[in-house]
Amino acid sequence: MIIRRRRTLRGALAATAATVALTATAGTAFASGDPAGAERARATAEAEAGRQAPGGQRASASAAAEAPVETPSFSMSAVDKQTKKLYLYHPNRAGAFGPRDLVDVEFDAFADTIPVDDDKDGWSDGSWYWNKNGTLSFSWISDDLQYHQNEIGGGWNTYRMLVSPGSIGGAKEADLLGVDKAGVLWSYLAYPEGRLTPRTRVGGGWDQYDQLEGQGDLTGDGKPDVVARDRSGGLWLYRGTGDYKAPFAGRTKIGGGWNVFDRILSVGDLDADGRTDLIARKPNGDLLRYSGTGSATNVFQKPVKIGSGFQIYNLL
């Protein structure tokens, strides 16, 4: 019954994604598909996955009584490069992903989706959607499966990268970080429903990195951390401080040779051990998992191959 209900919802929501070409005010053409409809379809599919996954079928009334989950587990979004269709890969809680789940909408209008777990139940309950035309919105599905969307605003194409490692200021909501085109890192503290404070300058020099990822605590101190890859393939750890004005300590190099990968991303805890993991893709489509150790001195275990054929996707 749950699976049938999920498919019915997905079909109904996907039908709202009209296949027309939209043009942004700045003159940048959207891909075919209605961004709002695609956003709604993905949010609903993600919410249903969390309800069905082991440990994810919690009633909201009892969730508060449970111990908060500091390291969430998120689905991986994959956009087919040819069809532009969106697929979700849900964690199987055994260190890999289950079969792909088609969300039958075109998703090429989005530069990234950034899930958050603000209620600390271990599953996504909302996402920022970064549109290629520079707009940012926040969408979430309530417990009664009602879709909600909050338009944050435009001008976000000033950034090269956006990431939400968790709460950098100590509040419940996960905050947002952005690296602008001049290499300056900025932080935005988040409030309920995706509302954001004015930005705070964290520091410059981040243009040396081509990928920035983080989803929870990597070092075991309870503070969200990030990793950044430089253009020569070095991987650097920035440990969280818990101070939103200076959210990261000085960097520590934790590896080299990471330029063999064309995509690095974090979906939180993939192997169900309570620690944040990292996913890396090779150009040939091989997908590897680097399991987190919870230690600042030896951050990741040796990689484990968890899939192949992923070169057909843009991984968000």
Based on the model shown, name its key terms:
mainly beta, 3 helices, 11% helix, four-stranded antiparallel beta sheet, disordered N terminus, 20 strands, 316 residues, Neuraminidase
Strand content: 25-35%
Radius of gyration: 18 Å
Low-confidence stretches: 1-33, 55-65
Count of spatially separate domains: 1
Q: How far apart are the first and last residues' alpha carbons, in Å?
A: 30 Å
Shape: globular
**Second-tier CATH architecture:** 6 Propeller
CATH topology: Neuraminidase
**How would you characterize the largest beta sheet?**
4 strands, antiparallel
Helix-strand pattern: HHHEEEEEEEEEEEEEEEEEEEE
Strand line-up in the sheet with most strands: 3-2-1-20
Please state the average pLDDT score: 83
CATH class: Mainly Beta
Quickly count the helices: 3
Strand segment count = 20
Helix residue percentage: 10-25%
Region (Disordered): 31-75
Organism: Streptomyces venezuelae (strain ATCC 10712 / CBS 650.69 / DSM 40230 / JCM 4526 / NBRC 13096 / PD 04745)
GO molecular function: N-acetylmuramoyl-L-alanine amidase activity
Biased composition (Basic and acidic residues): 37-49
